[in-house]
């Protein structure tokens, strides 16, 4: 000990020696492997390693339990909490629309904790990126549910580009966007939780910029007039004005442009989803993982559903298991997004009720990210070209996101998985954007991913409200790419129908099921 202390004092005086792994070497000399100590805290190294292996073996063998020590899960036992045997309302779908419905149901209930709301998420535990995704992925902070990591890696909500706008051609869509913009502006008043950090959705108020060719100029001008009547701040720009405002745009083929001046831009979808979920659960909403199957039964020879649990019930099929849990409920809200039609079809409801299938299908959409150091700067809006291609700025370092929806049904990609066709960018997206933004001729593709639209093949608009023959079955789906930005308004609307029996905040009756039965289309001209 005295010798070791002497060497340390010599080292401190001369600055030429230092200790490394129990030995001494000149400062700056090459490193060598540390000499293993024979003991560590009085325990022989071999014995300590053996105990560590024993601990890991025991953890792998002992059954897992809530707050328990073991990690082994018997085959067929589902992960996470089991659903309750009963619930007043079952919301099928744990995306942003489903959690918005759950939040508003709990926020508007007459008596605190007077109603049990259960949200069933199809698969919140996906840990891997979508098949075919590039090396870059949208950042998503982890969310934990007990000891279970929730990634929502294939959820439509977190795979969107996060846009919000008032530039629609239907009054209902404009009104829902304005409601949502006000909600997001005051998000902490609505979704803030006591003693929790404030919510920051990272809103970028850069606006939307729509470009129209001569044949669509009149339609764009009529839409802007309607938007202004609804209170939206939107400017019409001639090609000369467009070039003066955004000199990096090639205005060839552009007859007129519309530019959102207020409450338009983009935000972080994951943060909004997490905020809805966290607030709803703080108000008492319940959550479970699994697939929900709705069932209907005949009552006195007719199908009825006025708060009658026998008309529509739900079964939650547990993930990674053959087990299912029946959940007795009074009301089912179908917010299953791209699989809303499949949910009703699997229950056989359209055939039993003599109705056509719900026209909502999953449609796969690609999002590409690229880098272009000479591209548009901080003032860059979300631009929608005359060809349908779009892009927006992603940060301030020359990074961008964009894509293109197929113009014909025959060119729709297979929705069977979330693989990405990179030739689609090379052959379809890049040429269109490079013609409009000359700087993009030298861009570098960085990554890509795919997500689903809950596409309404009838008129590309959401379907809200009660089923025409089953009054305790409600729908909130089919938004065709607008579900994220309309979620606050759609969730409130459905909650008002369930709890009050009528709309209070917005009159969205035209978006109900009746138009599907009558064949009355509400075509939206602003689908991107």
From TrEMBL:
Domain FAD dependent oxidoreductase: 88-497
Gene Ontology terms for molecular function: oxidoreductase activity
GO terms, biological process: mitochondrial respiratory chain complex I assembly
Keywords recorded for this protein, A-Z: Oxidoreductase
Keyword Transcription attached: no
Positions of region (Disordered): 1-48, 64-85
GO cellular component, one term: mitochondrion
Basic and acidic residues bias: start-end ranges: 1-16
Cited InterPro entries: FAD-dep_OxRdtase, FAD/NAD-bd_sf
Superkingdom to which the source organism belongs: Eukaryota
Entry function: Required for the assembly of the mitochondrial membrane respiratory chain NADH dehydrogenase (Complex I). Involved in mid-late stages of complex I assembly.
Name the UniProt record assigns to this protein: FAD-dependent oxidoreductase domain-containing protein 1
Organism of derivation: Centropus unirufus
């Amino acid at each position: 000990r005295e010798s070791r202390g002497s060497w340390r004092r010599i080292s401190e005086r001369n600055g030429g020696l230092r200790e490394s792994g129990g030995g001494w070497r000149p400062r700056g000399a090459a490193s060598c492997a540390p000499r293993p100590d024979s003991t560590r805290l009085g325990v022989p190294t071999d014995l300590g390693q053996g105990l560590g292996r024993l601990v890991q073996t025991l953890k792998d063998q002992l059954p897992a339990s809530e707050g328990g020590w073991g990690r082994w899960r018997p085959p067929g036992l589902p992960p996470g909490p089991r659903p309750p045997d009963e619930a007043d309302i079952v919301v099928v779908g744990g995306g942003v629309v489903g959690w918005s419905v759950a939040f508003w149901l709990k926020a508007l209930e007459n008596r605190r904790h007077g109603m049990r709301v259960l949200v069933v998420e199809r698969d919140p535990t996906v840990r891997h990126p979508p098949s075919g995704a590039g090396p870059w992925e949208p950042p998503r902070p982890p969310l934990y549910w007990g000891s279970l990591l929730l990634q929502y890696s294939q959820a439509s909500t977190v795979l969107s580009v996060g846009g919000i706008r008032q530039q629609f051609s239907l009054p209902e869509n404009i009104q829902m966007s304005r409601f949502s913009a006000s909600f997001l502006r005051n998000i902490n008043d609505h979704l803030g939780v006591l003693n929790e950090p404030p919510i920051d959705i990272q809103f970028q108020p850069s606006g939307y910029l729509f470009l129209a060719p001569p044949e669509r100029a009149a339609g764009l001008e009529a839409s802007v007039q309607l938007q202004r009547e609804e209170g939206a701040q939107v400017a019409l720009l001639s090609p000369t004005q467009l070039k003066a405002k955004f000199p990096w745009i090639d205005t060839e083929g552009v007859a007129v442009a519309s530019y959102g001046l207020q409450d338009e831009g983009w935000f972080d979808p994951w943060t909004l989803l997490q905020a809805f979920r966290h607030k709803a659960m703080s108000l008492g909403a319940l959550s479970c993982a699994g697939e929900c199957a709705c069932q209907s039964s005949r009552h006195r020879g007719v199908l009825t559903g006025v708060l009658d649990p026998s008309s529509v019930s739900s079964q939650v099929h547990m993930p990674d298991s053959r087990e299912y849990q029946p959940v007795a409920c009074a009301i089912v809200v179908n917010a299953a997004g791209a699989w809303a039609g499949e949910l009703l079809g699997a229950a056989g409801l359209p055939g039993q009720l003599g109705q056509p299938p719900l026209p909502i299908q999953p449609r796969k959409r690609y999002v590409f990210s690229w880098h272009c150091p000479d591209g548009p700067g901080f003032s860059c809006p979300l631009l929608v070209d005359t060809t349908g291609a779009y892009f927006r700025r992603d940060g301030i370092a020359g990074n961008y996101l964009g894509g293109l929806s197929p113009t014909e049904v025959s060119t729709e990609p297979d929705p069977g998985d979330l693989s990405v066709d990179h030739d689609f960018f090379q052959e379809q997206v890049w040429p269109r954007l490079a013609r409009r933004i000359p700087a993009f001729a030298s861009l570098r593709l960085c990554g890509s991913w795919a997500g689903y639209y809950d596409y309404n093949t009838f008129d590309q608009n959401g379907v809200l409200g009660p089923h025409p023959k089953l009054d305790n079955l409600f729908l909130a789906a089919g938004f065709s790419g607008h579900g994220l930005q309309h979620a606050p308004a759609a969730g409130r609307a459905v909650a008002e129908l369930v709890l009050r029996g009528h709309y209070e905040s917005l009159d969205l009756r035209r978006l109900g099921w009746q138009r599907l039965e009558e064949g009355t289309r509400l075509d939206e001209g602003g689908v991107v």
